[in-house]
C-alpha cells in the first residue's frame, strides 16, 4: 500500500471534529499544546461549543490540531510508504506529519500565521469558488475585475480572491459564459493572493526562527502545498510555506504528484471531506476516505491495515 495523507484547510470545522481522537492517549500532547494558543481553552471543548470556529485565529489552530491528532493515532499503525500534502493551513500541519517540525511548533506557527493574515487583510475582501471554465479565460476575466487566482483545484475548478463586490460581478459574468458554479464564499480573507504580501513577509521572518528537524526514515515524504514538489531542502521548503499565503496554490499539482508517487490509498485528516472529494476525481483508481467519514478510529486503522 502507498498512502497519500491530505491535510484539510479551513472551512470544514464543526463541533464533532475531535470525536474520534478526543480520548486517544496518542493525541493528548497535541491537545495540551494547543491550549495556550486558544486562550487556555481545550480545543475539544472549544470545538464542541461551536463558538468562533471559523475565525482565522481559532480555525487555523484547530485545523492543525485535527490533522496532528489524527496522524498521531495513524502513525502508531505504521502505515508504511506514505506521502503528505496540506491545503492552505494544512501545508503547515504537513511539516508536523512529516517529522520536520514538532507539533508544538506547528501550532505556535499556526497562531502566528493567522495573526499575520488578519493584520494584512482589509475590509470588503472575499474569495469565490468557480468551476467549469478554462484557466486562461478565468484568469483574464479575474484580472478585468481586479481579482487574483488564489487556488487551482483542478483543470476547471478554481478559487479567486479580491474585493467582494468585484467578485460578485465576476461570478455573474462567468456564469453567463457557461461556468457550472460561481459563488462568493463566506470568507473575508483574500488568502493566496498578492493582497496578503505583507503577511508572507511577516511569516517568513517567523519561519526563519524555526528549527526544522531531519525527518526519520519512516516519516511520510513531504510535498509542498504550493506546487506539489517534494521538499528536500528545508529552508527552501519553508520559504514556499511563507509564499503560499500570497501566491496561487496549485493543489491540482499536489494531487498529480500523489498519483505519480503511486498512491493507491488516500486519507484526509482534518475537518470535513473536501480534499477527499477532489482526490476521488483526480485519482479514480485509489481508495479514498476522509477521517470524518469513519465512525471509529479502529475502522480507520483496520482500513489501513488491510491496504
TrEMBL record:
Q: Which Pfam families match?
A: Acyl_transf_1
Whether Transferase counts among this entry's keywords is yes
What is the name attached to this protein's record?
Acyltransferase domain-containing protein
Q: Which GO terms describe its molecular function?
A: acyltransferase activity
Membrane-traversing stretches: none
Q: Malonyl-CoA:ACP transacylase (MAT) domain: which residues?
A: 6-296
**Gene3D superfamilies this protein is in?**
Malonyl-CoA ACP transacylase, ACP-binding, Malonyl-Coenzyme A Acyl Carrier Protein, domain 2
Family annotation (SUPFAM superfamilies): FabD/lysophospholipase-like (SSF52151), Probable ACP-binding domain of malonyl-CoA ACP transacylase (SSF55048)
Transferase is among the record's keywords: yes
Q: Which UniProt keywords apply?
A: Acyltransferase, Transferase
